[in-house]
Amino acid sequence: MPALRNSAEELMWFAAQKDLQESLAWAYYFRGCAHYMQNDAPAAADDFLAVISRRHIASSFVFVQSAFGLASALFAQTKQDEAQAVIELLAEYAQEPGNAAVRGMAQACAAGVAYRHDNREEALRWVAKTERSFQRRPLIGLCAAPLVTTLVLIGQGTPAALLEAEQLLSEEDVFLAETHDRMARIEVLVQLAELHVSMNRHEAALLAMREAVELAQPGGVRRVFLDASRVVRDLLDELEFTGVHQRFIEELRVHSPRDNAMQEPAQRMPQATAAARDFVQPRHPDLIELLTNREMEVLQLLAMRMTNKEIAQALGISTDTVKQHAMNVFRKLHVDNRRAAVLQARAMGFQFDNQTML
């Protein structure tokens, strides 16, 4: 992403010197992509808006992709009304005479935005009528019809939809690996991780997520994870305990969308530590040995989706000590990750605070 941004700025300078307006639109588009993927939504919105203002100069591809990027960047800033206006502009553009060639791409982008922002019925209608035979080609857009299709199929969740999504994603992953399309592969791997969870393949999901993080970390690609579902955030929580790019994952969690029950760390810590002090463990034949008081505190805070760093701050201990306590909890509960630990503890009769989250 830093290299893409630098190249885009060089093109921007050259195009401005030679008054090459179409090239200038391309430059703004690619710089907007870099800003968005690195989670600088305001800067991305400015760049994509610069393309939209050149509506009759920019190529159809750049205009449609920039409209998708602008809507996404506005949603990331919780500017829903402005984002909706951009989606409507995109729909109008697709219907203009002479735009038949990009109509399918525009509709796919509109469906992608709709799906990610709680209008799934519209996305499901789109995927029901769209053609599934995709021509393999480099995916240089923020929005690609094949990946919108698989995203919606995974969300649909039926056995047939999941099997179709798996076939499409597997084929796409092979092609992208062969063509060294790292950026698109990150999104494919994130979708594969979510698909594996839906099909009860937890280890495969973690492996896919690990590879996605390893590809994303060097260039600081964050937005793919932040735009994904809560399932993806749960997998990131588990990876954090393995030490895979822990700082990068913690950065993602800081910027991750929070549910209403998810409070900011500073607000949660007093409540969390108080709840942990009142936490009583049951006697259970499957429990290797009783958890220590500190291990019970760590388990309670794990259930509240707190990061290693947040737990360390709440309990006044180091992150390495948190990891050790967590591993002891996993061993005693016969599990190997935080989500499984919480589920197993509940099955054994552990009672968590009402604010606790999986």
Concise structural overview:
The chain has 358 residues and is mainly α.
Account of the 3D structure:
- By secondary structure, the chain is mainly alpha-helical.
- The chain has two domains: 2-180, Serine Threonine Protein Phosphatase 5, Tetratricopeptide repeat (Alpha Horseshoe); 265-348, Arc Repressor Mutant, subunit A, CATH 1.10.10.10.
- The chain is 71% helix and 0% strand.
- It has helices spanning 2-18, 21-37, 41-52, 60-76, 80-95, 100-116, 120-129, 145-156, 159-178, 182-198, 202-216, 223-226, 230-242, 246-255, 265-277, 293-303, 308-315, 319-333, 338-348.
- Helix 7 (120-129) crosses helix 8 (145-156) and helix 9 (159-178) runs antiparallel to helix 10 (182-198).
- It is globular and about 70 Å long.
- It starts with a helix and ends in a 10-residue tail after the last helix.
- The model is unreliable at 259-268 and 354-358 (pLDDT under 50).
The CATH class of the largest domain, by name, is Mainly Alpha
Q: Would you count the extended β strands for me?
A: 0
- Write down the Rg: 23 Å
Alpha-beta content class: mainly alpha
Element pattern in H and E: HHHHHHHHHHHHHHHHHHH
Strand content: under 5%
How would you characterize the largest beta sheet? none
CATH fold label of the largest domain:
Serine Threonine Protein Phosphatase 5, Tetratricopeptide repeat
Summarize this structure as a short list of keywords or feature phrases.
Arc Repressor Mutant, subunit A, mainly alpha, 19 helices, single chain, Serine Threonine Protein Phosphatase 5, Tetratricopeptide repeat, about 350 residues, about 0% strand, 2 domains, disordered C terminus, about 70% helix
